[in-house]
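Worked example

This section walks through a single chain of length 365. The input is the sequence exactly as stored; nothing has been trimmed or padded.
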Amino acid sequence: MKNKSGKLKKRVLLEMSGGVDSASSLIFLLKKGYDVIGISFLFPKYESVSNIRDIEIAKSICKEFNTKHFIENCEESFEKNVVSYFKEEINKGNTPNPCILCNKEIKIKFGIELLKKYNADYIATGHYAKNVFNKKTKKYELQVAKDITKDQTYFLFNLNQDQLKKIIFPLQNIKKKSLKKFLKKKNIEIFKDIKESNDFCYFTSEIKKKDFFIKNIKNIEGEILDIYNNIIGTHLGLNNYTIGQRKNLDIKGSEAYYVYDKDIENNKLIVCKKEQKEKLRKKSLILEDVNIISGENLDRIEILAKSRYAQSLKEAVLEKINDKNYKVIYKNPEFGITKGQFCVFYKKKLNKIICLGGGRISKIL
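Given that input, the structure is written out below as tokens.
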């Protein structure tokens, strides 16, 4: 397909979930003159849980804009790379983040692998993140999106330079509020029916998660102990709890308790009282399987870091142990750092915040 000047249009493979963000991305890409093909991923079906309906919505959106739409089956890859990881981490007593693996293995790796099949130049996703080429360093930078409240760079820290060359984030300079106003002005009937986000996942819906846990995860009841080794209750399986958790602890009485630790070997849950929760603040952690987006060597550097997606960025120092292991030392002790979660680190330069990379928390010091 050619543009008005007679040149071939760049072809973009847009990953569509059936939600507002990917639907809006389609409009922006078409407006910029790209030849767009919509694709939706078919995930494994668990009981009544399926993303078929979401795919139908994505297909309808593409039809509205005279855009081709295809379905790509990623059931096998999802089972192998995401579900198996989730089961393994849970059964180890860790707190996994399947979204990290889904983005790495499905949305990015699998998406880019499809470029050849569709003779496309780029993939595009509805992520709120910036992909900027730095002419001075000759490197691509993963920067925090204009809408900081919606930024999703935390989930994308595994990206490398070769992948960033092939990715477009149409929403990188868009604020969610502006997006909603834009769609309202369009007054397109189909947009009235689609959800805020159709990011299909077995792990975010409590009903889906509960059903999934029952069928796939080992749950063995055990004792709940306070930090003085007193038995104060019975837990429903260590898989159901995470460090710093306060709700649903099944402890009688009116006092608030927080999950302090999990004794995997003896199947015991250790909790502390509200006035003791400062014990949950830790100064440093060790990361494994670290990815540095630029590919550069970082020996010791001041950073901004967060060990949970919803957390604000905190001042810290990153120290290299070896190529795949780093130590993060927070300026101030951080609450509820959890083994198995991911710590992602950033650097602020002038008016931009650059995601440098991240890794999995293997040890808390």
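What to look for: The two ends are 57 Å apart (CA to CA).
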